[in-house]
DNA sequence: CTCCTAAATGTAAACGTTTAGATTTTCTTA
DNA sequence: TAAGAAAATCTAAACGTTTACATTTAGGAG
């Protein structure tokens, strides 16, 4: 009983034509109950499993979507993926997941492969927002939705987190606590999240009449190491900041590590706010205040948009969703008494 | 210029037959340079991309492997996945990833779908080691390798971590520090890791003539919550343990959280060793000692074994690898002075 | 210039489905 | 019970490749 049975074998055994078998496999109805049972029995006995490749050849669709993430080790993406997968499974879709390690070249290859395989749609967090490597996909009429990073030159549905709002609120929170020397550890400025979180930071300072101080701006790369370096550099400043805003989870980890190593008193000498919740946030003392992103929801929404595109091929205009992040206030930001020593004696007002 | 070009179109445009085109697509040689260039040009101009489904119909293989994990949110699996993916890409394979949420039913469905798609192989961490749902895959002659959890009734290549050794060493370490009342937070006993880590624990106690105390054995389920509950229960004991060994990462997190909430002095009143390294390990004070698994290597090896099976279909006997975990000694285990108050005054020899 | 051989290219038959459209069977109704 | 309609079933043609085998072409040797 090799795994060889095909629809022919089933048809023969059930004494019907392959068309009828096909009908019951896809429950299209119009088959007498008695016949159906006979066919089902034959399928059972032969251990028949339909061949997806052959099916795809005729019907075009694969019930497969391709998912591209830049870094599978960043816990943000598995979470998003979980959301995607859940919704996908509900609708009978499967997901091919590939990680680019932030390499546009790899991304290009993966996309080509996705097209070869005839994926019904693509969900992507691109490694290169300005690239034209996405063109090929769109040209094939394959729907695409961008997650977390938007795409420059093409109109694709996009699901973002409101980064500006998130970082604005975080920085605002620190300002309202009396901080004036607030540093930021930035992400790469050629990525949407990196850029936007910086914008929120600037906007908050502006709205509260604090001037931007170059010394307090550290350019990181979203990697743990750069967070570590950032904190070190800020610490080495003559005039240290009293608060730090870190632009993503990994840098937060690096940053907090450095703060610990430097014996910089978190929540006292230095307040802290991070973008993205992290496991460690509630383990260190004081607990970290963070901006939390609705990752699962992001994934669910992304699939939902994609699915709509897959089903109704009509050209609906591009849609863009911005999900609001949530401020989780814990303990790493303490009231600050401006212009005075940090002992809290001379409370202003 | 719809994304419709097929091999026929290319052939026509290059003024050759489809056979020749096929030959250059698969670089099989035997095509005059001049002709090849003409074909390449046509491909370029038409934006032709070969149809994987049609290809698969003839040549049988899909260059796709299916990967099944029980919980995509457990950081262990993305790490393994990264290893798999890296090796796979090197060999021109792609991976379909699906998460079962520990549900054997879902797992069964996914496997069926994998067969439909004609994956060339399967890498799986099964949700049900005793299930016969794996039979269908093997029957189709699809190679399979098990990762982290072995499979009962079938002979498949297996890549494991030496759980017994890991937990043995961890417990041994605590014993040698003088601990006698060592508790364990177990994983489910119907999974290999859960079982084996418990065995290592028992063995260590036995070897050092410590008797197993039922009160110090807490049955968890590898989830964070159960770790939390475990620590609570142990704390509520009249005669508290002086050390805890936690069987996995998530339970470690729960456990450490509880210890914090209970104000149980980590590293002083209670020593701790966890299986699996976690982000938080180096953030809390004292830093956590853990057993660390070579996750990336696990994934790489798994793919390698699978690839061998795919290439050489000959029935090689089942192979089983056990990778050694590594003990990372940090600070959460302190010397214990047995039989005396924990103030360390009465050091026994 | 022929002939022969080897290299290059072409022809046509699968692969396993789905699905119009044709045909047969069953059921209803007069 | 026959006719007609409706339901069930069948036939055959795709889908886009790969590949064994057949055919043509090129290039030397005589």
Automatic annotation (TrEMBL), chains A, B:
SUPFAM superfamilies: lambda repressor-like DNA-binding domains, Periplasmic binding protein-like I. GO terms for molecular function: DNA binding. Gene3D superfamilies: 3.40.50.2300, lambda repressor-like DNA-binding domains. It comes from the Bacteria. The keyword Transcription regulation applies. Coiled coil: none annotated. Keywords: DNA-binding, Repressor, Transcription, Transcription regulation. PANTHER family: HTH-TYPE TRANSCRIPTIONAL REPRESSOR PURR-RELATED, LACI-RELATED TRANSCRIPTIONAL REPRESSOR. This is LacI family DNA-binding transcriptional regulator. It comes from Fictibacillus fluitans. The lineage of its organism: Bacteria, Bacillati, Bacillota, Bacilli, Bacillales.
């Amino acid at each position: 009983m090799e795994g060889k049975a095909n629809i022919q074998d089933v048809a023969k055994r059930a004494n019907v034509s392959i068309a009828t078998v096909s009908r019951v496999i896809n429950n299209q109805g119009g088959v007498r109950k008695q016949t159906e049972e006979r066919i089902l029995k034959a399928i059972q006995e032969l251990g028949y499993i339909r061949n997806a490749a052959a099916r795809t050849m005729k019907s075009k669709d694969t019930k497969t979507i391709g998912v591209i993430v830049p870094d599978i080790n960043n816990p943000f993406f598995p979470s998003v993926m979980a959301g995607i997968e859940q919704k996908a499974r509900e609708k009978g879709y499967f997901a091919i997941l590939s990680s680019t390690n932030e390499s546009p070249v790899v991304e290009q290859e993966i996309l080509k492969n996705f097209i070869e395989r005839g994926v019904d749609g693509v969900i992507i967090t691109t490694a290169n927002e300005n690239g034209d490597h996405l063109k090929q996909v769109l040209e094939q009429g394959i729907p695409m939705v961008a997650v977390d990073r938007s795409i420059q030159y093409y109109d694709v549905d996009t699901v973002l987190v409101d980064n500006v709002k998130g970082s604005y609120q975080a920085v605002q929170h620190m300002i309202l606590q009396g901080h004036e020397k607030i540093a930021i550890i930035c992400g790469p400025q050629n990525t949407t999240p990196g850029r936007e979180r910086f914008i929120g930071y600037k906007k908050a300072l502006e709205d509260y009449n604090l001037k931007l101080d170059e010394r307090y701006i550290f350019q990181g790369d979203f990697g743990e190491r750069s967070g570590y370096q950032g904190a070190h550099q800020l610490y080495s400043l003559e005039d240290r900041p009293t608060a730090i805003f870190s632009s993503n989870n990994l840098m937060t980890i690096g940053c907090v590590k450095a703060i610990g190593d430097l014996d910089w008193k978190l929540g006292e000498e230095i307040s802290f706010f991070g973008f993205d919740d992290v496991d460690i946030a509630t383990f260190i003392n004081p607990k970290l205040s963070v901006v939390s992103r609705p990752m699962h929801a992001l994934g669910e929404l992304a699939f939902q948009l994609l699915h709509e595109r897959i089903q109704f091929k009509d050209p609906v205009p591009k849609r863009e969703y911005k999900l609001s992040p949530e401020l989780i206030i814990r303990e790493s930001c303490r009231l600050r008494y401006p212009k005075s020593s940090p002992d809290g004696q001379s409370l202003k007002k």
